[in-house]
Predict the structure.
Amino acid sequence: MKNGRRRRFLLYFLLMSFSFSGLGLFVLYRQYKGIETRMILTEKLQLDSAPPLIRSHFTEVAHETILLGEFLSTHYCPEEGGASSSKVEGMLMKMAEITGNYDQIRYIDRNGWERIRINYNNGSVSVVPGDQLQNKGDRYYFRGALPLREGELYVSPLDLNIEHGEVELPYEPMIRFSAPVFDGNSELSGIVVINYLAERLFDFVNLEVISNDYIDVCMTDPQGYYLVNTRDPSREFGFMFEEGGDYTIGQDQEDLWEMMGKSADGTVVIDHNLYAFTHFHPLDMKWVTSKWGDDGSEVSLLPAVGYIWYLVARIDREQVWLQLKNQARSLSFAYFFLLLTSLGVSYFLAKYKSAAIAQQQTIKNMAFNDEPTGLRSRVFGLEHLKYDIVKSREKSERFAVIYTDADKFKPVNDTYGHEAGDFVLKTLGERFKSSIRPDDMVIRMGGDEFVVVLENVRGEAEIRVVADRIIGNIRMPIIYEGHEINLGISLGVAFFPDDGNTVEELIGRSDEAMYRAKQSKRGYCFYREGDQ
């Protein structure tokens, strides 16, 4: 009897020991995956915040270039008795000094001769003497702006500054913004060129994207050449050098580059690294840029849709292990205590509790989530919106309801079938979620209509950023079985409590604003009259 009792005790003990050991390993694995997911999603949010800000910064420089061209058209026409060069130079010097972002500001006549050149160097502004001015008629930034009309803009590719046929040292990454200047007869009189110091942009990217010192960031052009590489700066701008032909992300990480070619943005684990990536268009679609030949010569002008940059953040997976190790120390004491005290009771409670939770979650998902998008269903979403109204009223907070309608969706089902339609809807759901904060909510109302609920918003400026992000993400091409599907989207915005105090009012008024946006083709519209 005693031997049998001992055998049974040993059997139970071994069974529970193995069970708790397995449970402990499972917990550690889940913690590892949780840390990994949290780190990479946090960095992905950092990554997604950069493109809208970069586009906004570029837009500011572009508008200054166009306005400068218009100013020179009006005030600097030497043949027609316009303002003197000294007055114009003084204004340009002041502009360079105030912005601090421009290496040079130049006026080049239609024959390619520099007439005014303002240099900015480490806070010092100077006017280049006339005998040192050069002919730039063969430069791509001059030729690129010659065919443009009033109000149009040429933006050069990002490259290094070249003086006397050699790359200038230390490296000066540069983007040239060029706009035409016309005389009183609407004839082209010259080109205004602003050399934008891209180093300012790089500092901005690093500040916005790098959240920890163990994160590396790179930014590449469409061919994968590094424009920024915080891990190895020596590989930047490989296209400028004969020996740098292989300095691309495709050469360094082939699997990652292949995945980046298949998806607009995402996260992935490759080897011992976590990657988050996205691509974006930094320029306004109405501007133009250049396409380059294999020998470095300019081939032709292209619309800005071809001006694409990739942003990639890399996290060393070793950092996940370090964080897990710190957590494992505190968990080990609890593990051994449970192993000695909980025994079979804890084992069975955990087993059946886990089964019950899993079953409840399955039922909850079926009731709350929409198929095929995985977003909140219409029934659950509208009920949750009632809770948002009560909560926001108690806390005196505002929230926004954005009613959206995808344009050109119906032909997808008609052309490619319902499987393609479901794939597009699922992709739209993913892009909506990637455009908002984790605490915000997306509801599929039915068909191609969605409602986005943004919690605790302060004002319209915050909504405009989100609206631009949603529109930009939705308009990116969707690839289905080799077919490129392009959709548009219209958004209508209503605020609680400004525009309504009930679910019906908020939905109805955001829907009304959406139809106004669709009719005016503005992309998005606020409910209140007079909003832009």
Confidence is low (pLDDT under 50) at residues 292-296, 344-358. DSSP finds 13 helices and 23 strands in the chain. The first strand starts at residue 102 and ends at 109. Residues 492 and 510 are 5 Å apart (CA to CA).
